[in-house]
Design brief:
Immunoglobulin-like; 121 residues; elongated; 3-stranded antiparallel sheet; 7 strands; alpha+beta
């Protein structure tokens, strides 16, 4: 009887460990993007799960009409800084870190105006 209970517990532990191992990669590459304006500079920051920064990738900046207006590689600290593109329709910023992992941030014209004013203070 004891060996049957031990065997069942062993398989339960193995199943739980397998579930943990197999589900971890799903969350390992979750990418969050945040973009903001500092004067005449657009700053884009990326964060992976576990508060880690992506080491490589590209930031694409589109205007409100989905036209690509800027592109920049990510620095090793997980950020990209580029001159603030002119756009009266706002900006859509997409960060891509490879293997289909990407996320985006939208800055409306009002966001850009307010952040530029705030930076001047």
């Amino acid at each position: 009887m004891r060996s049957k209970i031990s065997l069942v517990l062993f398989f339960i532990i193995i199943a739980l460990m397998a579930a943990k191992i197999l589900t971890t990669p799903v969350f390992a590459h979750q990418l969050s993007v945040f973009a903001y304006v500092e004067g005449q500079t657009l700053v884009v920051e990326g964060t992976l799960a576990g508060n880690k920064r992506p080491k490589k990738g590209i930031v694409y900046v589109y205007d409100g009409e989905e036209k690509l207006i800027a592109k920049k590689e990510i620095s090793p600290d997980g950020t990209a800084k580029l001159p603030l593109p002119e756009s009266k329709t706002g900006l859509k910023i997409i960060m891509s870190v490879g293997e289909g992992h990407e996320s985006y941030w939208i800055l409306t014209p009002l966001d850009i105006e307010n952040q530029r004013k705030e930076y001047k203070k």
